[in-house]
Structures are given as structure tokens and as C-alpha cells.
Design goal:
- By secondary structure, this protein is mainly β.
- Helix content is 0%, strand content 72%.
- The chain has a domain of 120 residues.
- It has no helices and 13 strands.
- The strands form 3 sheets. It has a 6-stranded antiparallel beta sheet, with no helix packed on it.
- It is globular, with a radius of gyration of 17 Å.
- The protein starts with a strand and ends with a strand.
- Keywords: Membrane, Transmembrane, Transmembrane helix.
Length: 176
């Protein structure tokens, strides 16, 4: 039996001193390989949801692109299969009309609960990678914090274990 998983993409737009929420829900079976990437430049941003289906020893890719305006220069990708998971945090910096990429890869076994959160204010941003290990009926937390400057509010959360897959939410705060 295949259970379904839903990716929630939540857009937050500040308008007349109130927040307007637009939510897109995308269900898919939990036995799919998948990755989610947010990428952007000065003019637009795109959320890429990439579904990987193994069929006859081949990978079939289905890509969903969701464009939206922003001026953020970074992306966060989580990729996994049955054997391992990797969180990719990719920083994009425009310098002399070229893009400079800094990539942080954090591998860990797929049977560990984890979440990835990016939080920011007008002065700084921090990526929090939180690993949760169940031990003796209690949760042990290991937190990795990665600070960097930005002026954009952005939160990404992903959680999974060996038995069920993905809950993702993107929250984008547009600064005018």
C-alpha cells in the first residue's frame, strides 16, 4: 500500500499591513525519490520540485517549476534515497557580473529524523539543521547553525524517517 505525501508551498505577501497566504499542495506517493530546490536571481525565483521514479533500472524525472518574484540569492536542496540523505545549501553571490557558488553538503543516514529551517530578519539569517535521534524513548537534538547576511525572510522545513517521507513548507516573506 502506498501512502501519499504532500508538499506545501506557502507564499506570504505583506499587503496593507496584513499577510496574505497562498498555499499550493502537491501530493505524491512516498516511494518516490525526490528533491526540492529553491533558486533565484535578481528578477525571479523558482521552486523546483523534482520527482524521481525508478523504472526498469532507469530514473524518470518530472519537474514542477513554480515561479515567483524575489531578490534572494540562495537555494536549499534536500535529496535522498533508501540508503542516504544529503542536505545541500547553496549560496549564490553576484560579483562582477558572475555567480559565485558556495555549496555545503551534509550527509546523514535516512533513519534519522531531521529538519532544516532557515530563519532571518533584516540584519542576518541563519540556517538551522536539526537532527533528531530517538534513544531510550527520548529525543536527542543536534543543531547546526549556519549564519549569513540577507534581508529576506525564508523558512524551509523538511522531516523524514525510514517509514514515511516528506513534509515540506516554504514560507517566503517579500520585502519591498
Amino acid at each position: 500500500m502506498c501512502f501519499s505525501v504532500v508538499v506545501f508551498i506557502i507564499f506570504h505577501v505583506f499587503h496593507c499591513n496584513s499577510l496574505i497566504y497562498t498555499v499550493l499542495q502537491i501530493p505524491f506517493p512516498t516511494n518516490m525519490f525526490f528533491s526540492v530546490t529553491h533558486s533565484s536571481n535578481m528578477f525571479y525565483s523558482v521552486v523546483f520540485i523534482i520527482f524521481h521514479v525508478s523504472h526498469c533500472n532507469l530514473l524518470i524525472y518530472t519537474v514542477l517549476q513554480i515561479p515567483f518574484p524575489t531578490n534572494v540569492f540562495f537555494s536549499v536542496t534536500h535529496s535522498s534515497n533508501m540508503f542516504y540523505s544529503v542536505v545541500f545549501i547553496i549560496f549564490h553571490v553576484f560579483h562582477c557580473n558572475s555567480l559565485i557558488y558556495t555549496v555545503l553538503q551534509i550527509p546523514f543516514p535516512t533513519n534519522v529524523f531531521f529538519s532544516v529551517t532557515h530563519s532571518s530578519n533584516l540584519f542576518y539569517s541563519v540556517v538551522f539543521i536539526i537532527f533528531h535521534v530517538s534513544h531510550c524513548n527520548s529525543l536527542i537534538y543536534t543543531v547546526l547553525q549556519i549564519p549569513f547576511p540577507t534581508n529576506v525572510f525564508f523558512i524551509v522545513t523538511h522531516s523524514s524517517n525510514m517509514f514515511y517521507s516528506v513534509f515540506l513548507s516554504f514560507s517566503i516573506f517579500h520585502v519591498t
